[in-house]
């Protein structure tokens, strides 16, 4: 099958809805957009067995050919991109369906769906591209869609600012990625995955080349996957409609950085220093974001910091060389985080745009379906035994344990924090008493079926997602399916882990206890004692520090934004106006009297003067030609 | 030749039509040269002019073809929507068409003096357009512009004459101004430096490169939109075109000239000028609230990179630079058009005093966004391929830090262009725009289509110029120029 069809369908949806959506009935717009994502999902499924045999590569077209450099439009569907494609289109379809109800009253309904389709198109380019240039196309394309969708409600200047912030921070990362591509071209003469990776596998270049490229590509990943220091855009990105947060800022786009590293496995295996960097950045991000998540009161902000933290966990895995473990967590995280975001959207929808969990409480009675599915999501992300998150997280923890005890300790701590902020939010939202004076409890309603259906499907996936890659201690016949599936793609493969079965059981015990502690503690605090998160002005010390996100935004503002603005103002007012321009004006003044004389001679006669000139010029040419 | 005579004739017709000249007629007149050239091809000419050794030699080659495409594509767009219809419309159109003739001459000239004459000829219409129709202290602004460019032209003429005197004497007993003859002159490094400097100054002013930019922002801002489009879209390309074709290729020896012993040569200086302009323009653009001035400084920033890439003397850098000349022309015209369409309706262009146009004019917002994205160089828009090639060449050529600093443009440009788009089209509505006229819509559509088409198919442009570029680079290498 021609792989371009996978791209053409969502692009078609973007075009039709973008151009004619305003005239079409809303149902047609939504159904068209959803099915143009669903069809690629089905098509990708049908290619499963074919891809299992060998990667499918499309007919290439030339994009740029200058000198020795030849860059092509070229697609490749292999085992890794198939997984990504299924996640993107599968979860994408569910979120499209959900949006049909969630956005039903929005004036920009058609625009929303055309942007969503454009996003799917770009995301598919990113994962289906057969070279780094295609990856970069998709990379920038999803960044653009993210910009458009964060700022979707553009009448609010704050949202517009959040959108710009996201785009610019991503561009900082892109600078690294771009320089990485330049170095790849310089040293390996191509951007084609096959060529580049087989060249790298020869290990014929000095170490610094691999390390530099690996670090530069990771800088790109820092931006897109919201890692320290480029993570601050993601929480602000919650300004976008909630389905966008679920699709772009949780399940798909933000995992692009993980995909990039997994794709470049051979490079990162040869660059241990870069991997160490990834490990520590991932670890620091995971902890920092989890801490901040403890004191957030906006339901979406909690989830946003949770996403940053979970992405950090994936990078910890990558830092340990556990590529398939990272992919496993990427997949399960896509299930439960999409579920949680859509669930929060259902809450926000049911409460008429309220997002502050201090003004919720007791919603389980009003929204039973949302409640149950949200519970499943919360259990899955917190590591309740045998749910999807439990397995994927434990595999990462196992690798960290093998790597070093203190990395393990900190990762477990981060996992524990996950349970704490998730249950805090969960109990405050669904248990206890209703606390909103401005919106009567009777008015809170369960969401329509179009919204709850995707919740149920995602809940089922969150429950069973562990099946993708069951650990060998549970089953010997079908264990580690995902790892085996990806194995043929890797040159060096996952880092090997050897631990005694007894140790492995002990680690499981630790993980379960951490979960239990978090659950019991939060239940005690917010259900039994019925406490409510404090108001902003009551906060003090560490709570305030966390609620204000360690003041990192303020820090960046005074370190970068303000000085740059001052520099811009100074450059214009002083250097340009009082410097270069003033100097020129001075020169002008010297000849000023001449100018005035000239002006007096000319005034009034200019048009005549011009006509004569034009005629003379034409005449001159004509005479020379025909003489 | 037809590319010069037809526009001159059209200019006369347009002026003669006076009040009868309407938009469609003017647009049709401006389209004729390009269509004729497409249908019949461009005919070259080489005949004696004032005397035997001063010839009228016009012969389009690869680069010229692209520049002719640029000129004869953009002039119709400018005629279509750049000028507001009014009492002086026919004069404005006539001068624009006169400009078209002169520009076509500049880009086809194969003779030093022919080049010089058309170069000066192109200055005349734009001078009058700026003088007659600028806002504010138009005389001071125009004088500044005129003085600057005129001084540059004089040094260029001096250098050309000097080169002429060194050309080998032909059978007819004369020296020659022919491009090939001038190119064949071999110079010592020091001699080359002074010749090169004379040529360089003319182009540096026109581009403009820092620190010769002081005329630019005031002229761009205060000149009427049509004139600004001519200046930034096409005339600026005279400078970039000249920089490579009439400076680097004629006096490559000069690039070796050491300004600081063993450390810093003339080429490094030009690179630094480009880099300085790139950063300087970006810093200022980030803080401007006058939309037109913002675009003017963004232009300064973009051409800085193009100049740097040309001086890499690498196939990818130079080809990327030529591609970007086309792209910058399209985008600059597009952006100044967007600003002017707003100014026509609001009566001002203060970004702080506008907003939310996306609500009242979704078509306008969508096309403006496409042009903005092209300028930001998002992949699959026209800005990307050229910027990619240029940054790659700068990054891979010797001084890596230069490449990293230049690549900062991808961040800064996103900052100021998105700020521009945000303030104008998003946010709360501050005043609404009356709907666009047919000609304004058509112009936006044409520009938008060019942005997307070039973004997906940049190779079409590259194929026009590539062999030409490579032969120049080879010639420079053979003449002992640098190819680091």
Any descriptors?
heterodimer; A: 627 residues; mainly alpha; two-stranded antiparallel sheet; 4 strands; 72% helix; globular; B: 484 residues; 20 helices; 4% strand
Helical amount of chain A? over 70%
How many β-strand stretches of chain B?
Answer: 4
The secondary-structure class of chain B comes to: mainly alpha
What is the straight-line distance between the termini of chain B? 39 Å
Multimerization status? heterodimer
Q: Count the helices of chain B. How many? A: 20
Order of adjacent strands in the largest pleated sheet of chain A: 1-4
User: So what's the overall shape of chain B?
Assistant: globular
How many extended strands of chain A? 4
Strand content of chain B: under 5%
Question: Which stretches of chain B are low in confidence, meaning pLDDT under 50 for 5 or more residues running?
Answer: none
Q: Describe the largest sheet of chain B.
A: 2 strands, antiparallel
Give the termini separation of chain A. 67 Å
Helix count, DSSP H or I runs of 4 or more residues of chain A: 27
Largest sheet of chain A, if any?
A: 2 strands, antiparallel
- In angstroms, what is the radius of gyration of chain B? 21 Å
What is the largest interface, and how many residues per chain? A-B, 66 and 79 residues
**Structural category of chain A:** mainly alpha
């Amino acid at each position: 099958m021609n792989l371009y069809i996978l791209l053409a369908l969502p692009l078609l949806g973007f075009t039709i809805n973008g151009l004619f959506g305003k005239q079409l009935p809303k149902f047609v717009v939504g159904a068209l957009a959803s099915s143009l994502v669903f069809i690629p999902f089905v098509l990708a499924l049908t290619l499963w067995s074919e891809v299992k045999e060998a990667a499918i590569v499309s007919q290439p077209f030339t994009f740029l050919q200058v000198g020795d450099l030849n860059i092509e439009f070229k697609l490749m569907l292999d085992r890794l991109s198939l997984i990504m494609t299924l996640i993107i289109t599968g979860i994408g379809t569910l979120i499209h369906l959900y949006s049909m109800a969630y956005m039903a009253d929005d004036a920009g309904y058609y625009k929303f769906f055309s942007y969503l389709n454009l996003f799917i198109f770009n995301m598919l380019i990113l994962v289906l591209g057969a070279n780094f240039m295609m990856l970069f196309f998709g990379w920038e394309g999803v960044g653009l869609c993210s910009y458009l969708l964060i700022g979707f409600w553009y009448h609010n200047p704050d949202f517009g600012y959040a959108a710009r912030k996201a785009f610019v921070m991503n561009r900082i990362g892109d600078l690294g990625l771009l320089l990485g591509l330049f170095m790849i071209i310089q040293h390996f003469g191509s951007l084609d995955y096959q060529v580049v990776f087989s060249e790298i596998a020869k290990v014929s270049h000095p170490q610094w080349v691999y390390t530099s490229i690996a670090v530069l590509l990771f800088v790109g990943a820092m931006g897109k996957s919201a890692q320290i220091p480029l993570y601050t855009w993601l929480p602000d990105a919650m300004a976008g409609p909630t389905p966008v947060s679920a699709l772009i800022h949780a399940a798909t786009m933000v995992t692009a950085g993980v995909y990039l590293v997994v794709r470049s496995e051979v490079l990162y295996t040869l660059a241990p220093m870069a991997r160490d960097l990834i490990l520590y950045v991932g670890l620091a991000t995971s902890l920092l974001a989890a801490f901040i998540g403890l004191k957030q009161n906006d339901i979406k902000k909690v989830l946003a910091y949770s996403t940053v933290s979970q992405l950090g966990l994936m990078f910890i895995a990558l830092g340990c060389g556990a590529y398939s473990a990272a992919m496993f967590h990427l997949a399960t995280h896509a299930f439960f985080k999409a579920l949680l975001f859509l669930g929060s959207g259902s809450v926000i929808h049911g409460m008429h745009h309220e997002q502050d969990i201090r003004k919720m409480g007791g919603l389980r009675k009003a929204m039973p379906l949302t409640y149950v599915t949200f519970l499943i999501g919360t259990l899955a992300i917190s590591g309740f035994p045998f749910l999807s998150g439990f397995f994927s997280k434990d595999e990462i923890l196992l690798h960290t344990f093998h790597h070093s005890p203190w990395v393990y300790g900190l990762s477990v701590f981060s996992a524990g924090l996950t349970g704490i902020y998730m249950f805090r939010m969960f109990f405050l939202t669904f248990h206890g008493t209703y606390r909103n004076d401005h919106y009567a409890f009777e008015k809170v309603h369960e969401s329509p079926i179009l919204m709850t259906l995707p919740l149920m499907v995602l809940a089922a996936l969150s429950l069973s997602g562990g099946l993708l890659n069951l650990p060998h201690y549970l089953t010997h016949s079908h264990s580690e399916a995902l790892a085996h599936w990806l194995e043929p793609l890797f040159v060096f493969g996952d880092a090997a882990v050897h631990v005694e079965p007894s140790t492995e059981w002990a680690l499981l015990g630790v993980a379960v206890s951490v979960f239990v502690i978090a659950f019991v503690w939060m239940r005690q605090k917010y259900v039994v004692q019925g406490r409510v998160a404090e108001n902003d002005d009551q906060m003090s010390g560490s709570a305030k520090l966390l609620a204000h996100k360690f003041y990192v935004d303020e820090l960046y503002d005074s370190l970068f934004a303000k000085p740059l603005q001052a520099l811009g103002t100074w450059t214009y007012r002083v250097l340009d106006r009082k410097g270069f321009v003033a100097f020129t004006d001075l020169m002008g003044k010297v000849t000023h009297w001449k100018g005035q004389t000239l002006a007096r001679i000319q005034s009034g006669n200019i048009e005549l003067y011009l006509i004569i000139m034009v005629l003379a010029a034409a005449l001159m040419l004509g005479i020379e030609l025909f003489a | 030749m037809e590319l010069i005579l037809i526009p001159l004739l059209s200019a006369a017709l347009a002026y003669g039509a006076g009040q009868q000249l309407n938009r469609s007629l003017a647009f049709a007149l401006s389209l004729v040269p390009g269509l004729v050239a497409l249908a019949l091809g461009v005919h070259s000419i080489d005949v004696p002019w004032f005397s035997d050794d001063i010839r009228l030699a016009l012969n389009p080659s690869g680069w010229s073809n692209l520049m002719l495409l640029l000129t004869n594509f953009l002039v119709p767009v400018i005629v279509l929507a750049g000028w507001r219809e009014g009492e002086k419309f026919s004069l404005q159109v006539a001068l624009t068409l006169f400009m078209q003739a002169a520009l076509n001459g500049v880009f086809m000239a194969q003779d030093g003096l022919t080049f010089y004459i058309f170069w000066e000829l192109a200055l005349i219409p734009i001078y009058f357009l700026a003088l007659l129709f600028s806002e504010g202290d138009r005389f001071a602004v125009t004088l500044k512009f005129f003085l600057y460019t005129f001084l540059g032209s004089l040094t260029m003429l001096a250098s050309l004459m000097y080169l002429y005197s060194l050309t080998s004497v032909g059978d007819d007993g004369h020296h020659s101004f022919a491009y090939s003859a001038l190119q064949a002159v071999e110079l010592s490094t020091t001699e080359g430096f002074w010749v090169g400097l004379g040529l360089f100054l003319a182009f540096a002013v026109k581009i403009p490169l820092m620190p010769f930019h002081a005329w630019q922002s005031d002229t761009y801002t205060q000149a009427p939109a049509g004139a600004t489009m001519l200046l930034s879209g096409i005339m600026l390309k005279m400078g970039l075109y000249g920089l490579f074709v009439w400076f680097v290729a004629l006096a490559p020896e000069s690039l070796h000239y050491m300004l600081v012993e063993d450390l810093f040569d003339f080429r490094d200086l030009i690179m630094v000028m480009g880099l300085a302009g790139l950063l300087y323009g970006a810093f200022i653009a980030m803080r401007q609230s006058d939309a037109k001035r913002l675009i003017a400084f963004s232009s300064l920033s973009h051409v800085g990179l193009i100049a740097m890439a040309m001086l890499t003397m690498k196939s990818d850098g130079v080809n990327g630079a030529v591609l970007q000349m086309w792209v910058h022309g399209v985008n600059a015209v597009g952006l100044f058009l967007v600003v002017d369409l707003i100014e026509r309706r609001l009566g001002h262009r203060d970004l702080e005093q506008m907003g939310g146009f996306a609500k009242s004019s979704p078509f306008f917002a969508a096309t403006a966004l496409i042009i903005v994205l092209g300028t930001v160089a998002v992949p699959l828009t026209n800005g990307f391929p050229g910027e990619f090639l240029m940054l790659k060449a700068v990054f891979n050529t010797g001084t890596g830090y230069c490449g990293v600093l230049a690549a900062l443009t991808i961040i800064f440009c996103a900052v100021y262009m998105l700020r521009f788009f945000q303030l104008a089209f998003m946010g709360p509505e501050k005043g609404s725009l009356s709907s666009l006229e047919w000609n304004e819509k058509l112009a936006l559509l044409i520009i938008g289509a060019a942005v997307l088409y070039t973004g997906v198919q940049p190779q079409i442009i590259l194929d026009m110029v590539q062999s030409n570029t490579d032969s120049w680079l080879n010639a420079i290498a053979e003449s002992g120029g640098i190819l680091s």
